[in-house]
């Protein structure tokens, strides 16, 4: 991936993809160029109404927008064109272009989110849903000054995420070692071709592990194609990340989802966030791992619908849906904070 030009003062702009291909029912691929020149690959599942409820789905580190496919399919099946769904690849991920390593920061991802909202003219009630680093991006967006938030979210869903203390819990404690900064500096000085070769050796074992726990292999495939520049670039930012001070001021309807088998962002992170965000609801799935978008797909989709204020119609279809939910979410524990 090539580095983007440095044009920090340029406004974010929307450009249709070269052929604006339709990739599914009501979905159009778009390109949003951020204020510093990075081109983000966006999928926009439009609505019949300009003021329709909108959800932006934010993926995790080393993944892509494709990790949200189960939720996109379920939400489109439930609500069709009554809602708008926007997904995109973060800078340095998927089909978005790369950028200078010093820009691989959570705060910059929050600025990218603001650029996307502005460029796509989001006007309807907004819900942000983020998995792992995507949830951190959503929280960092709330931490920006009001003048730098083009749209004020009405809903928030945090999936397997954290508000800080990443390097103090679970296997993420590895971030606390001096190797994190050393790796950033080393990769920053290495030629791009060398880093691309190195990443294949480093992440192949992780991809194999994820293949065993992700039925469709989406997450594993995404990790295998991520450059070492991206992987190493975000590590120092994750280590420093802390937005706990902003949680008490969040007024959006918030639902936090955690997995009992999540080793990357243990459920204690979710408990802390749910306790600090006024009125937040905590949904805990004891058997789900970090890949909650696959392990507890229906639970995450339900949380998004609930945060958006979308309710199933009463009657037979709704009752049937509730019955399915009981069987698929039999081990789901709900904690209201």
Short description, anyone?
Helices cover 39% and strands 17% of the residues. It contains 12 helices and 11 strands.
Task: Give the helices and strands, then pairings.
Elements (H helix, E strand, L loop, with lengths): L12 E4 L5 E3 L2 E7 L5 E7 L8 E5 L10 H11 L4 E5 L17 H14 L6 E6 L1 H10 L12 E5 L19 H11 L2 H22 L4 H7 L3 H13 L3 H4 L5 E7 L7 H10 L4 E5 L6 H4 L1 H12 L7 H13 L4 E4 L1
Parallel strand pairs: 5-6, 5-7, 7-8, 8-9, 9-10
Antiparallel strand pairs: 1-3, 2-3, 3-4, 4-6, 10-11
Outline the structure in words.
By secondary structure, the chain is an alpha/beta fold. Helices cover 39% and strands 17% of the residues. The chain has 12 helices and 11 strands. The protein has helices spanning 69-79, 106-119, 133-142, 179-189, 192-213, 218-224, 228-240, 244-247, 267-276, 292-295, 297-308, 316-328, and strands spanning 13-16, 22-24, 27-33, 39-45, 54-58, 84-88, 126-131, 155-159, 253-259, 281-285, 333-336. Helix 2 packs across helix 3 (133-142) and helix 4 runs antiparallel to helix 7 (228-240). It is globular, with a radius of gyration of 19 Å.
> In terms of quaternary structure, what is this?
single chain
- Report helical residue fraction: 25-40%
Shape from CA axes? globular
Return the structural class: alpha/beta
What does the radius of gyration come to? 19 Å
Instruction: Report the sheet with the most strands, covering strand number, pairing sense and barrel closure.
Output: 11 strands, mixed
N-to-C span: 43 Å
- What's the tally of helices? 12
- What is the mean predicted local confidence, pLDDT? 79
Strand content: 15-25%
Spans of at least 5 consecutive residues with low confidence: 1-9, 16-22, 179-184, 199-218, 314-330
